[in-house]
């Protein structure tokens, strides 16, 4: 079944420029983990997923076709209804036991695993922090109610806060936006906004470079800028129940889908590119040789390199028409960096993995 499913044009998917989008089916996910609800990519391009209620408290590493190649048990954690998985720019993993279909749970929990990438070869993780929370606008000890709006299946982490977006079981055509500190302990999630929505949000991914959040609903994807509060249009995808979304690189998402008639969840790749845009690229990436090339079919004006916290580490300027330039990286440690390539036509930011 591998191959192109469809191509569509997005007019406001990202930065307001027309985009072409290719969605590829990668494979069926091993049914050991069913109803896959969250997905992340690590800095060295490893992919982990979780399943929701009924699954064990386990992280599953997937191959590019959906096979399970490694499992990590989170010892002492419980999977009541794991719905979201996020890895922030500091390498901290957040597992959201946040599913709340009947809006009456009083044990909503976030599991926080610091420095996850140093632990991801283990079979068991014993040490984690626990964040318990309730909602600021919900009464204590609520009764079951499948028409309330206190079920969140989407969360992202930025600015030292966890951000939740409700699924809108009450059909209010709004998703409630809550924030919560990332520190362990018991907290109250603060309602800060209500987003007009026609489709229920089932997952989210954060673009740390451009401060954009991307939502998936059952059969659509859209963008949201939490600073300007501007939402992009929802664009339909030929799917039944999209659940998970993460960035794989600067212009590619991974998506997971549950199909009610099948025991396996599905894994997809979504690749988008601005139409008519003169694109730049960097290579080799991942990089082992400590020499990087930036190339473009336009004139390269400058190349800047930042660490993942946004600190400028180096900058090179060019004044003549040149389509490929070398950049020495000998002084840099292994890790993830951002490379900003400015040409006479546009500016693009690329993620670089230095090994």
What is the structure about, briefly put?
With 355 residues, this protein is mostly beta strands. It contains no helices and 30 strands.
Helix and strand arrangement:
Layout: E1 3-14, E2 17-28, E3 36-41, E4 47-51, E5 58-62, E6 68-74, E7 84-87, E8 93-97, E9 109-113, E10 124-125, E11 129-135, E12 152-158, E13 161-166, E14 174-181, E15 185-196, E16 203-207, E17 212-217, E18 220-225, E19 230-231, E20 235-236, E21 242-249, E22 252-257, E23 266-274, E24 280-283, E25 291-296, E26 300-307, E27 312-317, E28 324-328, E29 335-343, E30 347-354
Parallel strand pairs: 6-10, 11-15
Antiparallel strand pairs: 1-2, 2-23, 3-4, 4-5, 5-6, 7-8, 8-9, 9-11, 12-13, 13-14, 14-15, 16-17, 17-18, 18-19, 18-20, 21-22, 22-23, 24-25, 25-28, 26-27, 26-29, 29-30
Q: Whole-Å distance between the termini?
A: 34 Å
Mean pLDDT: 86
Q: In CATH terms, what is the architecture of the largest domain?
A: 6 Propeller
Low-confidence stretches: 1-18
Q: Please count the helical segments.
A: 0
| Main sheet makeup | 8 strands, mixed
| Principal-axes shape call | globular
Given helix and strand content, the structural type is mainly beta
User: Share of helix among residues?
Assistant: under 10%
CATH topology of the largest domain: Neuraminidase
Q: Could you tell me the strand content as a percent range? A: over 45%
CATH C-level class of the largest domain: Mainly Beta
């Amino acid at each position: 079944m591998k191959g192109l499913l469809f191509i569509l044009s997005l007019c406001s998917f990202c930065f307001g420029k027309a985009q072409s989008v290719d969605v590829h089916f990668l494979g069926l996910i091993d049914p050991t983990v069913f109803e896959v609800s969250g997905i992340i990519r690590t800095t060295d391009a490893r992919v982990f997923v979780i399943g929701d209620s009924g699954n064990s408290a386990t992280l599953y590493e997937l191959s590019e076709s959906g096979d399970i190649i490694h499992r990590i048990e989170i010892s002492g954690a419980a999977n009541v209804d794991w719905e979201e998985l996020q890895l922030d720019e500091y390498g901290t993993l957040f597992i959201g036991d946040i599913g709340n279909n009947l809006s009456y749970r009083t044990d909503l929990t976030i599991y926080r695993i610091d420095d996850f990438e140093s632990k991801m070869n283990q079979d068991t993780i014993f040490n984690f922090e626990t964040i318990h929370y309730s909602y600021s606008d919900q009464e204590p000890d609520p009764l079951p109610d499948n028409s309330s709006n206190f079920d969140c299946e989407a969360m992202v982490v930025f600015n030292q806060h966890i951000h939740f977006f409700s699924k809108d079981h009450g059909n209010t055509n709004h998703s409630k936006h809550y924030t919560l500190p990332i520190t362990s302990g018991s907290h109250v999630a603060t309602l800060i906004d209500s987003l007009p929505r026609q489709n229920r949000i089932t997952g989210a991914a954060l673009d740390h470079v451009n401060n954009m959040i991307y939502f998936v609903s059952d059969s659509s994807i859209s963008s949201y800028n939490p600073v300007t509060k501007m939402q992009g249009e929802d664009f339909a995808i030929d799917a039944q129940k999209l659940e998970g979304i993460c960035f794989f690189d600067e212009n590619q998402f991974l998506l997971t889908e549950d199909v009610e008639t099948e025991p396996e969840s599905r894994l997809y790749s979504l690749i988008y590119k601005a139409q008519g845009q003169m694109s730049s690229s960097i290579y080799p990436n991942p990089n082992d040789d400590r020499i990087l090339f930036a190339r473009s079919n336009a004139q390269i004006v400058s190349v800047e390199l930042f660490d993942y916290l946004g600190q400028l580490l180096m900058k090179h300027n060019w004044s003549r028409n040149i389509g490929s330039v070398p950049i020495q990286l000998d002084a840099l440690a292994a890790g993830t960096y951002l490379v900003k390539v400015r040409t006479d036509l546009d500016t693009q930011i690329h993620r670089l993995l230095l090994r």
